[in-house]
Amino acid sequence: MITCVVDYVIDPEKIADFERFAAEWMRLVRREGGVHHGYFLPAEGASDEARALFSFESLAAYERYRTLFGVDPEFVAADRIRDESGCVIRYRRTFMRPLLPDDQLPE
Fold first, then answer.
1. Which residues on neighbouring strands pair with residue 50, listed in sequence order?
2. Residue 4 CA to chain centroid, in angstroms?
3. CB of 40 within 8 A of CB of 26?
4. Paired strand residues for 91
5. Torsions phi, psi of 11, nearest 5?
6. Average pLDDT in the 45-68 region?
């Protein structure tokens, strides 16, 4: 399993737009066989940071998902929310592998 961690700097005045953007990406990750662990939005402290975590069974599965960017109409529409609203200022993507308790390992 590979987990993608996306750290965002967002416009705190555009949280509603970011939430629409996030809802679409959670749906699309699930549609393509990934597991979305959610978006984490500001509650206290820095109000311009957000994070997303989602997993695919392998890096190859993630790369198949990435081939749809800029091609699949629903992916294009989801990105359009970000681009047209300006809710995301910048983001950084990191790949991690989870270390889980034995009773939580994928089968």
1. 8
2. 8
3. no
4. 8
5. -85, 115
6. 92
